[in-house]
Specification:
The protein has about 450 residues and is mostly beta strands. It has one domain: 7 Propeller (Methylamine Dehydrogenase, Chain H). It is built from one helix and 35 strands. The protein has a five-stranded mixed β-sheet, with no helix packed on it. A four-stranded antiparallel β-sheet has the order 1-35-34-33, with no helix packed on it. A four-stranded antiparallel β-sheet has the order 2-3-4-5, with no helix packed on it. A hairpin with a 3-residue loop joins strand 34 and strand 35. The longest helix is centred in the N-terminal third of the chain and has 21 residues.
Length: about 450
């Protein structure tokens, strides 16, 4: 080959590689959705076109629909060509599930024997590939009328699958359903701290990161954050937490200088060292029944809660240390970039997509903020007479919000509010959807559907 030809070919290859880097390699598209709200709990899956409209009754844009036994608000997760989810099958024929906006705190009276199950499904067909019984017995605690005994979303790293059923235990399987180990933490009293008889069930989901399983167990007595070896179940560390029951999932963030576990709480929202479990920073004075999961974006931590006298949003720097609680009328300090006292969401994890924070409240009020400054861009109503518990997810320039009544609203991302579609699943929808390869996987009261 002549030297001039070699130079020409090299130049052409450099141009092609440059174009591929700009466009993104097909392999760069993350098609897995490994835990609650996908990777890093961000709720985002890019790289594929996603649907605006579908019809669950006539099958338009429905790839498949599979009935799921029992009750479960745990979300589907995706790894490769498989979907995993959990469910709790009551001995009652039609166990109570009450949705909507109401103030009842009394738990469901159901002392029948339950089956706590872990399912694996084919992503392309919806066929159930295996169904494992993790535990069988009368639930150790009661549940809220809007909750189930399978609220916690499972997690996977592609080799291990971890499912948490609260008082019934933590279970680790291989990807083919062989039980590797299990943990029994005893009775975990997930109750309203002011009325202990108001048992509402466990909901915090496990997270797998760098060979460890992280669990947040905030209950009435002996709350803790713990790290276990994912292969063996061996406890690596366990840190006591002085907090009331909470229902949020921890977030693990690997920064340049340190990896930290970020948790929501009432008395103790904060960050912990991933390696040692030692506290790094904390905030006190959030909503008194925190549920939303912390989310990291733009180099900041977004924390949300809305029950009790306050419904704050805190936006915290990742280098925060010590007690960073706001004093008096402060809305910011050296560690808190911005905050609001009222306007956070009660159950929904915030969605940060592009430059904007989308905060959906249980009554359908959607507020859009500039994520890095807190500037309010708009406040609009999503739906009419709909209530919301599922958290928002995003893909392909679209936001997806699933109402409890089963209507999934598709909203255009960006500074101008526009509803692109409303799609009725004809069933209760409490679980946050998963997204993979352009498909929405939506779990309802009775089934899981793949939408394309």
């Amino acid at each position: 080959m002549k030297k001039s030809q070699g130079i020409f070919i090299t130049a052409v290859l450099m141009v092609i590689c440059g174009a591929l880097l700009l466009q993104g390699f097909p392999g760069d598209k993350d098609t897995n959705w490994p835990s609650f709200r996908g990777k890093d709990a961000a709720g985002i899956a890019e790289g594929f076109a996603t649907p605006v409209s579908w019809d669950i009754e006539d099958g338009a844009n429905i790839a498949w629909k599979t009935d799921i036994p029992g009750l479960g608000h745990s979300c589907p997760i995706v790894w490769g060509d498989r979907i995993y989810l959990t469910t709790a099958v009551s001995g009652m024929e039609n166990p109570e599930l009450k949705v909507g906006l109401y103030g009842s705190i009394q738990p469901v009276e159901d002392e029948t024997e339950h089956e706590f199950r872990v399912l694996c499904m084919d992503k392309k067909t919806g066929k159930i590939l295996w169904d494992k019984l993790a535990h069988k017995g009368i639930p150790e605690v009661k549940r809220h009328p809007k909750a189930t005994h399978a609220n916690s979303t499972p997690a996977t790293d592609g080799k291990h699958l971890v499912a948490f059923f609260g008082s019934e235990g933590l279970f680790c399987y291989d990807m083919d359903g062989t039980l590797l180990w299990k943990k029994d933490f005893g009775v975990l009293e997930s109750s309203f701290f002011m009325v202990h008889d108001a048992q509402w069930g466990f909901a915090s989901s496990p997270v797998i990161f760098d060979g460890r399983v992280i669990v947040q167990v905030d209950v009435l007595k002996n709350s803790f954050l713990a790290s276990f070896d994912v292969a063996t179940g061996k406890e690596i560390w366990k840190t006591s937490r002085e907090d009331y029951p909470t229902w949020g999932t921890p977030t693990v963030y690997a920064g340049k200088d340190r990896t930290q576990i970020i948790v929501n709480g009432f008395k103790h929202t904060g960050g912990y060292d991933f390696v040692t479990g030692k506290e790094i920073w904390k905030i006190a004075g959030a909503g008194d029944i925190p549920v939303p999961t912390p989310v990291v974006a733009h180099g900041l931590v977004f924390i949300n809660s809305a029950h009790g006298p306050q419904s704050p949003i805190f936006v915290v720097r990742l280098d925060a240390e010590g007690d960073i609680s706001l004093q008096g009328t402060e809305t910011s300090n050296d560690s808190i970039v911005w905050s609001i006292r009222r306007g956070g969401s009660y159950i929904q994890t915030p969605l940060i997509y592009g430059d904007y924070l989308y905060n959906l409240r249980g009554n359908g009020a959607l507020t859009c903020f500039k994520a890095q400054t807190g500037e309010e861009i708009y406040k609009e109503q999503v739906g009419n007479m709909n209530s919301f518990s599922a958290s928002g997810v995003a893909a392909d320039g679209k936001l997806y919000f699933a109402s409890e009544q089963g209507v999934i609203f598709v909203v255009k991302a960006g500074p101008e509010f526009e509803v692109l579609g409303e799609n009725d699943m004809k069933d209760i929808c409490m679980a946050t959807p998963a997204i993979s390869e352009g498909f929405l996987f939506v779990r309802t009261h009775h089934f899981l559907a793949a939408i394309k």
